Amino acid sequence: MRRAALALILSSACPAQAEDFLLWLPIDCTLGQDCYIQQYMDRDPGEGHSDYACGTLSYDGHKGTDFAVPTRAAMAAGINVLAAAGGRVRGYRDGMPDTGWTEETRDAVEGRECGNGVVLAHPGGWETQYCHLREGSVAVITGQTVRAGYVLGQVGQSGRAEFPHVHMSVRRNGVPVDPFDPDGTLTCEASSESTLWAEAPAYRPGGLVEVGLTDAIPDYDSVKAGLAGVDMLRPDAPALVVYGFSFGTRAGDVMRLTITGPEGEVISRDTRLERNHAQAFRAVGKRLRGRRVWPEGVYRGVAELIRGEAVVERREAEITVAVE
């Protein structure tokens, strides 16, 4: 089993010119469809936190960017982690299980919070680090030279990871750098044209990860695992339930959940979120009461995340009610 020490360097960010150093996405997916950015580098020097767009998608002291996949089922299917720039492998670690971070695993991951990962050295004093890779997936060795886009491993949940993702840190001469604002000139009042990205990812201020339909209120672990939704139900199913799984929600946001079927609307309900959530899910449903069966046909579940007067994101799913 291959192992090498990986140190997560913590330091205060300072301005750094991008020059000819450019980054490509470190994950083989389509942002906004089958993956998303859960958290950005913390730009608040105090005890609070703020992302580069002055939003809430970060936490105090976060030193990188988290590219997440929707569920553990998506992780299990295999999503590649890619070198964001060409360089030389300075170190790696593999062999840590994808148990994620809980109170039960805290002691086991202490000092190895990055989990399975890779550090690449690039010209000009630049480094990129890729954390939380899937156990057994690391595909490089120390000293190896790789090009941008080379497969380093796969997205996992090893180390201090509460959801499947790859955490990418960028450093220059050991100092963390925000790839969305490497020169450090960005403020809440003024945008910055500086970026390390060859094609800068669009900023999403939160959104929906998944929507699904089933016959009972699912437990949160099943939702995060990607095992809650179904494609078909029998007409005598005890209930019809729609759930929405979201990220980056803020206090006051509304989750609107709706089910429609062959005879029109089954249920529609708004739920107001009372605090900020890195991830959250809500569900509503209707029991089979006063009738023997649900009409056969296609049912559509819709989730909308609403902030103020604007719909941040809308997603839908379908289910067929029929006799098998």
UniProtKB/TrEMBL annotation:
Keywords: Hydrolase, Signal. Residues 1-18 form the signal peptide. It comes from the Bacteria. Its EC number is 3.4.24.-. GO terms for molecular function: hydrolase activity. Gene3D superfamilies: Glucose Permease (Domain IIA) (2.70.70.10). Residues 61-179 form the M23ase beta-sheet core domain. InterPro entries: Cell_wall_metabolism_enzyme, Dup_hybrid_motif, M23ase_b-sheet_dom. Pfam families: Peptidase_M23 (PF01551). The keyword Oxidoreductase does not apply. It is an enzyme of class 3 (hydrolase). PANTHER family: L-ALA--D-GLU ENDOPEPTIDASE, PEPTIDASE-RELATED. This is M23 family metallopeptidase. It comes from Sulfitobacter sediminis.
